[in-house]
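INSTRUCTION: Work out how this chain folds

Token vocabulary: learned, describes local backbone geometry

RECORD BEGINS BELOW THIS LINE
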Amino acid sequence: MILSILFAGLGQLYNRRYIKGIAFLIIEIAFLITTLQSINFGLWGLRTLGTIPGTDHSIRLLVFGVLSLIAIVILMTLYIFNVIDAHKQARKIREGWKPLNLKDTIRAAYDQTFPYLMTLPGLLLMIFVVIFPLIFSVLLAFTNYNLYNSPPRHLVDWVGFENFQELVTVPIWQDTFISVFAWTIVWTVVATTLQIMLGMFLAVLVNDPRIRFKKLIRTILILPWAVPAFVTILVFAAMFNDEFGSINRDIIIPLIGGDGIPWMSDPFYARIAIIMIQTWLGFPFIFALFTGVLQSISKEWYEAADVDGGSRFQKFRNITFPHIMFATAPLLIMQYAQNFNNFNIIYLFNEGGPPVRGQNAGGTDILISWVYKLTFDTNNYAMAAVISIIMGLVVSGFAFYQFRQTRSFKEEGEV
């Protein structure tokens, strides 16, 4: 173990595990020759974000710094594993274990490492697709990266929690954040609950034994799911148009007169329209999901309830509803998380409008669409990163708590 602490692989060579020892030696030597200088440069860039305006690019230095941190974690993990492996191997030799020959060693190593080899590509992909962007965005929230501090002409500086303080103290940020966050919660709860309730109602109704032409009805109800969502949203955006939309022109004005309802220009009516559209878009999936679950419920349960004199409401409350929730709770939770970050419908319907006086977000903007505007319209990357962190904490906290209440995180023996 002491030899492995001094230099990776020496302990394995001392224990006569030559293949493993040579592998660790090659890894450490390659690190010292090829990546040590790059990691030092990356850590310097992460600490300073550059020192010469016009020459040092702060964001590139931040990227190199994050990559250096990831490389250090990977190398430290391998180094610790090298030390632990040498210690365990020495203990086994002391207890009388004898090294295997080369052929048996290769076979045993393959058997033990096969699951890790199969998951390694996915792990590497997750590191660079999920972990790296996550760390980068978190660090970006503690900088002053915006339109007026854009490299390479200007350097980006670390500002600590200044962006978080401005979000809750500066009036325009505070008012906008409270308004958008509250609407995001309302939008998520109302729109998702409505699509779940409508899907459940239709699934239970179509599953009734007295209903005929079930296959035809189910096919018709699933059709909205077959049409691409962006096409449906754009069609509805045209239908809800204040001036030439068919809803005002052919339905509202003939019934109540006047100029119709300002679906696009009034935040209240725009929000109602978006909720209705999302209900239309979301109920077919819930309907198909609940229909499959209803088919799996044994008819004997309902027959026993009929014998006991149970009403239809009692059968639904004590048989149908518990079975549906038991089988679909994780998927329903995912529906809430998905709608919390449902960018498509907000942007495609009216780009988050209409404008609201005293705020830098539109009347129907949710957090994700506000982040998009801050990033691409006003180039306020640091504040966008702050809001992204808040979004991630809300969604992950809610999802983790709810999943813990279901069977999703429970082992087989705990159920």
About this structure: The mean pLDDT is 87. Residues 169 and 175 are 9 Å apart (CA to CA). The domain at 163-414 is CATH 1.10.3720.10 (MetI-like fold).
